[in-house]
Specification:
The structure holds two protein chains of two kinds. Chain A is mainly alpha-helical. In chain A, 76% of the residues lie in helices and 0% in strands. Chain B has one domain: MetI-like fold, CATH 1.10.3720.10. The longest helix of chain B has 35 residues. The chains are: A mainly alpha, B mainly alpha.
Chain lengths: 268, 300
C-alpha cells in the first residue's frame, strides 16, 4: 500500500513536476532560472503581452486549430461510418488508406507536405499547415468514432430507414446522438493535437509562426527566456481549465438523462 | 419533405452504393491528394539528384547508395535505436505496474487518475520538453539545488545535452500513451484471477511473469505501435535536449532537407524510415494477433 502510493506520487512528479517548477519560475524575479528564488514578480506576464511575436504565434495556432478541428470531425465521422457501417468490395483498401496516416510518422508527413507543396510551387502558409494537420488528425478522429460505432447495433439505423427516414435523418437522429460523446472527446483531442503540433508545422510553415514554432525558435536563440516560462505556464493552465470544464460538462450532461455514466472505459 | 411526388417506395430503396460513395468520397479524396501524393513525391525525389544549382535529374539508386554507405548515417541510426529502445523499455517497466495499479488497485480514484494521465499527454509537448530542460540544465534546478545544498561543487554538465537526457525526457513524454493501451488490456481481465494467483502463493515476480504480462500482451503490442515509431522518428526532443551526442535520425533528415538542401538524400532516408515503420507495425500487429489467438485457444 505504502509503496503503491509512493509509486503513484513518483509518476505524478515525473508527469507534472517539471511543469510546476516552470510555473513557479514564471513568477521569479530573475532572468536566470536557478535556485534560490529571488522574489515574486508578474513582470514576465506583462512583458509577454507586449511581445508581438507571441501574440501573432498564439493567434495563428488558434486560427489553425479552430479550422482544422471541425474539418477533422466531419471527415473523421464520414470515414468512420463509411468503413464500419457498410460491406463493399473496396472496403479493405478504403479502410487501409484511412488508417495509413496513423502508421506514418508525423516527421514524414511534414517532410512529404513540404516537398509536395514545393513541387506544385504552392507557397507555404497557414493553409498548408492546416491541410497537413487535417491529413494527420482526421484518421485519428475516425478511429475514435469507429470504436464507438462498432458498439452499437446497425439494426437501429436499418429500423429507422425501414420506417421511412432518409439518410440525412438517420444520421441526424440516430447516428449522431449515439456517437456524440465520442465526437466531443475527438473534438477536444483534435483541437489540442493541432494546437500542440510541432513536427508537421515545422516543415510546412514557411515564414509563418505558430505557438510551438515560436517557443522552439526562441529557445534555440537564447538560453533561458523568462517570457517562455510565463507564456508556457499560461497556455498549460488554459489547457488544464478547458479539459476540466469539458470533463464537468460531460458529467453533467450524463447525469441529466444520459443513459450511461462516465466510466474509465470511455476515457480511453 | 417537399418531394411528395416521388413514390415513397423509390426514396426508400437502399441506394447502398450511393450511400457508401457519399460517406467515403471526401475522406478518400483528401488522403489521395494530400497524403498519398506527398508520399509519392517523397519517393520520387529520393531518385533525383539535388544540388545548390537545383534539380539535376534522375540518378537511379544513387541516393540510397549514398545513404547506406555513409558511416555517419549508421552511427546516428545506432544512437537512435539505443535511445528509442532504452526509453521504450524504461516506459514499459514503469507503465506495466502503473496500468495494473490503475486497473485493479485504486478503486475510488481510478477515473480521476486516468484523466490526469490523459491530461498530461494533452499538454503541449514543447512546454513539457522545455520544462525538463529547465530541470536538467547546467544551471538548472537539479544542479543548482545540489550545489545550494552543498552536495556537489561543480554542476554536472552531462545532465542536459546527452543521450540520457533524451531517454529520460522521451520516456516521460510518452509514458501516458504507453500506459493507456496496457491499462485497457488489463481492464478486460477478471481481478479474481490475480487474487487466486496470490492466494496460491505467487510472488510479485511470478505474478507479473505468468499472469500480468501475458494478459497485458495485446496492450503492450498496441503501446509499441503507438510509441516506438514516433519515438524512433523524434525530432523535437533531441533538438532541444540531445545536443550532439543525442542527435537522432529525425534530426539528420531535418538537416538534409532544411539545412543542406540535399532533398534527394533526405527523401531516401525518409523513405527508408517509412519502410521501417510499416514493417515494424506489421510485425507488431501480427505478433499481437498471434498472441490473442493463443490466449483465446487456451481459454484465457
Amino acid at each position: 500500500m505504502f509503496f503503491r502510493i509512493l509509486f503513484l506520487v513518483f509518476i505524478g512528479a515525473v508527469l507534472y513536476g517539471p511543469l510546476l517548477i516552470l510555473a513557479i519560475f514564471s513568477f521569479n524575479d530573475s532572468i536566470i532560472i536557478a535556485l534560490p528564488l529571488e522574489g515574486f514578480t508578474t513582470k514576465w506576464y506583462t512583458l509577454m503581452f507586449q511581445d508581438p511575436g507571441v501574440i501573432e504565434a498564439l493567434k495563428n495556432s488558434l486560427i489553425i486549430a479552430m479550422i482544422v478541428t471541425p474539418v477533422c470531425i466531419v471527415l473523421g465521422t464520414l470515414a468512420a461510418v463509411g468503413i464500419s457501417r457498410f460491406r463493399y468490395a473496396l472496403r479493405g483498401p478504403v479502410a487501409g488508406l484511412i488508417g495509413a496516416p496513423l502508421v506514418v510518422p508525423w516527421l514524414l508527413i511534414g517532410i512529404g507536405g513540404l516537398l509536395f507543396f514545393s513541387k506544385l510551387r504552392v507557397p507555404l502558409s497557414l493553409g498548408t499547415i492546416g491541410v497537413m494537420h487535417v491529413v494527420a488528425i482526421f484518421p485519428l478522429v475516425a478511429a475514435i468514432v469507429a470504436a464507438r460505432l462498432v458498439r452499437f447495433d446497425p439494426s437501429l439505423e436499418e429500423a429507422a430507414r425501414d420506417l421511412g427516414a432518409t439518410q440525412i435523418e438517420v444520421l441526424r437522429y440516430i447516428v449522431l446522438p449515439l456517437i456524440a460523446p465520442a465526437l466531443a472527446a475527438a473534438a477536444i483531442f483534435a483541437f489540442s493535437w493541432s494546437f500542440n503540433n510541432f513536427t508537421i508545422t515545422y516543415f510546412t510553415a514557411g515564414f509563418q509562426s505558430t505557438f510551438p514554432i515560436w517557443v522552439f525558435s526562441t529557445l534555440n536563440h537564447a538560453k533561458n527566456v523568462p517570457i517562455v516560462n510565463a507564456i508556457s505556464t499560461l497556455v498549460a493552465a488554459i489547457q488544464v481549465v478547458i479539459l476540466y470544464i469539458a470533463w464537468r460538462l460531460s458529467r453533467r450532461w450524463q447525469s441529466r438523462g444520459g443513459d450511461e455514466t462516465l466510466t474509465p472505459e470511455m476515457v480511453i | 419533405m417537399a418531394a411528395t411526388t416521388v413514390p415513397a417506395a423509390v426514396t426508400r430503396t437502399p441506394h447502398r452504393r450511393l450511400r457508401v460513395i457519399a460517406y467515403v468520397t471526401s475522406p478518400v479524396v483528401v488522403l489521395m491528394l494530400f497524403f498519398l501524393a506527398p508520399m509519392g513525391v517523397l519517393g520520387y525525389f529520393s531518385f533525383l539528384k539535388f544540388s545548390i544549382a537545383g534539380v539535376g535529374g534522375f540518378t537511379g539508386l544513387d541516393n540510397y547508395r549514398d545513404v547506406l554507405t555513409d558511416p555517419t548515417f549508421w552511427d546516428i541510426l545506432w544512437t537512435t535505436f539505443t535511445i528509442a529502445t532504452v526509453s521504450m523499455i524504461l516506459m514499459l517497466v514503469v507503465s506495466l505496474p502503473l496500468a495494473s495499479i490503475l486497473a485493479f488497485r485504486v478503486k475510488r480514484f481510478e477515473l480521476q487518475l486516468l484523466l490526469l494521465l490523459v491530461l498530461a499527454d494533452q499538454l503541449n509537448p514543447l512546454i513539457r520538453v522545455y520544462a525538463w530542460r529547465i530541470l536538467l540544465g547546467k544551471n538548472g534546478i537539479i544542479n543548482s539545488t545540489l550545489m545550494w545544498l552543498g552536495v556537489i561543487n561543480q554542476p554536472i554538465a552531462s545532465l542536459l545535452f546527452s543521450k540520457t537526457a533524451v531517454i529520460i525526457v522521451t520516456a516521460a513524454e510518452y509514458l501516458a500513451i504507453a500506459t493507456i493501451p496496457i491499462y485497457a488490456a488489463l481492464k478486460a481481465v477478471d481481478p479474481s484471477m490475480l487474487e487466486a494467483a496470490h492466494d496460491l502463493g505467487a510472488g510479485t515476480f511470478t505474478l507479473y511473469r505468468k499472469i500480468l504480462i501475458p494478459l497485458a500482451a495485446p496492450g503492450i503490442f498496441v503501446a509499441l505501435i503507438l510509441v516506438y515509431i514516433p519515438l524512433f522518428t523524434e525530432f523535437l526532443t533531441p533538438a532541444l535536449v540531445g545536443g550532439t551526442s543525442g542527435f537522432m535520425i529525425g534530426n539528420y533528415i531535418e538537416q538534409q532537407i532544411l539545412k543542406t538542401g540535399n532533398w534527394g538524400v533526405g527523401s531516401a532516408m525518409s523513405f527508408l524510415l517509412l519502410l521501417f515503420s510499416v514493417v515494424f507495425v506489421a510485425i507488431m500487429y501480427r505478433l499481437g494477433r498471434i498472441n490473442r489467438l493463443q490466449t483465446a485457444s487456451t481459454g484465457g
